[in-house]
Amino acid sequence: MSLSIVMVLALVGSVLGATPLLAQDATSHQPGITTTGYGFASAEAESADLQFLIINENFYGGLPPFPEVEATPGAEARATVAPIVDAIEARDAVEGVAVVLPVVLSLYGGPTPIARIDVTVANPDLELLTNLIVAVSQAAASERLLIGYVGASFNTSDCDALESDARQAALEEARGRAEIQADLLGVGLGEVMTSADVGVAAGVEYDGFGVHIPNSGGCAPHAAYIYGGEFSFSVSLPRFDPTSHTGEVEIHVQLQITFAIESGGATPTT
Asked: Domain containing 70: what range?
């Protein structure tokens, strides 16, 4: 094959290869209106997972003695929290209880947790969960122990439908905002051009990188999150406060939507 033919083929190939890029570039520069929409959906939970981090009350009166080496690692900790486990198992709707060892030192030099108690509850509601937390607190106090942390997540088998509802609500809110902006600009609003998820600051705490962590709404919060507070590395569920939570599975979605601009809209608002 001659050199001239090779050069022609190479040129044709480069032009054809660039065509999609040129088309994509043209699309990306099409005029549009970008807005953000927030969506929320909730439903009754089929089950809830809770975590209770148990700490020693004596810490606040001074440092505890250095622990001795146990013949059976964890045996003393399990025996210490056994009355709390018994109180949990006596509650209605409790499907499972597990003592988790070992737990990690406090980040800020606070009390070292004795153990974490994981509990699964069927068909939870706020009253049931509040009564469970009170029962655990009372059982811990009777043993001169404290609850250092309560975490929770709520579960349902229909997370896909919930997320779809939340996303639809976010899209509608974004469209409503875009329609207002289009009216102000005196243009028409076209089809959706792009859509992107934007992080929702649904929690009030931060992870180790300064990023908002999710609340305990459920539907599988991202496993990579490190939950805020001094016991971050001993827990795997977001903090739960029954006074500020619905006790349901909650989905929060925030979308950034770009709509195409069409000519022939209303007269711009001044």
From this structure: 42-158+201-253
